[in-house]
Every structure is written in C-alpha cells, then in structure tokens.
Amino acid sequence: MSYPPQNPYGPPPGQQPQYGYPQQQPQQPQQPSPYGSYAGGGQMPGMQPQYPVAMPGGVKAARVLMYVLAGLNLIGLIGAVFGLGSVSKAAHQTTSYTSPDTTSMLSVGKGILIFVIVLIVIFSAIAITLALQCANGGKGVRTGAIIFGVGTILVSLLTFPFGLVHTVLGILVIAFMAKDESNYWFNRPRY
Q1: How far apart are CA 112 and CA 104, in angstroms?
Q2: What's the rounded Cα separation, in Å, for the pair 185 and 171?
Q3: Angle between the 100-133 and 139-158 helix axes, to the nearest 10 degrees?
Q4: Closest CA to 182 of 132, 126, 142, 135
Q5: Among positive and negative, which fits the CA dihedral 71, 69, 79, 118?
Q6: DSSP per-residue string spanning 5-54
Q7: How far apart are CA 78 and CA 66, in angstroms?
C-alpha cells in the first residue's frame, strides 16, 4: 500500500490538494484598529504602530471644556474690572477726614483685584492656546492641558462657592487628557 507523500506544509503551489491535506481557507483582510492590534492597544513586535487619524472624542471634549473655561474667565474678568473701578472710585472719594485704615484697606483691595485680573488673563490665554493646539500639538500640549486642569482646580478651590464650576471642568479636562486615546493622539507622528 502506497501513501501519498506526507508534506506538513501542504501541496506544492499550483496543484490541487490531495486526500488528507487540509483545505486552505481564503484569508479576509482585517480592518486596522486606530489604537493597535491587541485589545489593550499594544502592538505586535515587528509591526508598524497604528495611530489615529481623527481627533478622539476625549480630546475634542477637553478642547471644548478649555474654551468654556476661557469664556467663564472672561466673564469673571469683566466683573473684576468693574470691581476695580468701583474700589478706585471709592478710594478717590475718601476725604482727608477718613481714617488711614480705610485708605490702606482700599489700597489692599485694589492690589488684590489687580492680581485677580492678571491671573484671569493668564489662565484665559493658556486655555485658548492649549485648545487651539489640540489639533496638531505634541506631548507638551497634553502635559500642559493636564497642568492647566490642576492649576484651575487649585485656584477655583480658593473661591469655593463661585469656583465650583471651574473645579468640575478642571477635573474633566484632566480626565479626558489622561485617557489612552489622548496619549495615542498626541504621540502620533506628524510629517
């Protein structure tokens, strides 16, 4: 009794499979995942890394939140400027008969309001700059946005009842920027 040759790699190319050989199934092309080939997002050794081509939803949400924070800061800036104007007006209306304590308190109030105005302008400029750079920025934009969120939380805790919205928005910016999809977006190659 003669057996066909036992080739573990299948029949030679171009020939029909003989009895006992497994049938070859045609391979279907797989859709590449924007975050990697494994479920955890990792890459197989020797493969080209696959990066997202569109901005992930978390980065878009963080960008919108930074614009919202800048808008809220500008509303606060208007209030601080009006407050500075009223304190300055009150300081000019004081007479020489008022106590020196009143004059010094008005000067301290003006100094605090000027500091608040400068702080609001700085935070607004940083928020707008980071939000504009989310589309094409690198790892520094992501790190800067996380630091911006922490700074927003710390400053908003000083003005607790009024800064509660800033606290929540700062936490959300940190959460969205710390996600893996944000990491993949900001680590993608830019040509």
Answers
A1: 12
A2: 20
A3: 150
A4: 142
A5: negative
A6: P--TT-SPTTS---TTSPPPPPPPPPPPPTT-SSTTS---TTSPP---SS
A7: 19
Sign of CA dihedral 79, 81, 87, 90: negative
Three-class secondary structure assignment of 113-128: HHHHHHHHHHHHHHHH
CB 170 within 8 A of CB 156: yes
Confidence (pLDDT) at 189:
81
| Digit-coded pLDDT (tens) for 103-154 | 788 888 899 999 999 999 999 999 999 999 998 878 899 999 999 999 999 9
Residue with tokens 């407050």: 83
For residue 145, what are the CA distances in angstroms to 67, 107, 135, 158, 182? 12, 35, 13, 20, 11
Q: How far is CA 149 from the centre of its chain?
A: 9
Q: Which amino acid is at 125?
A: A
Whether this prediction's pTM lies above 0.70 is answered by no
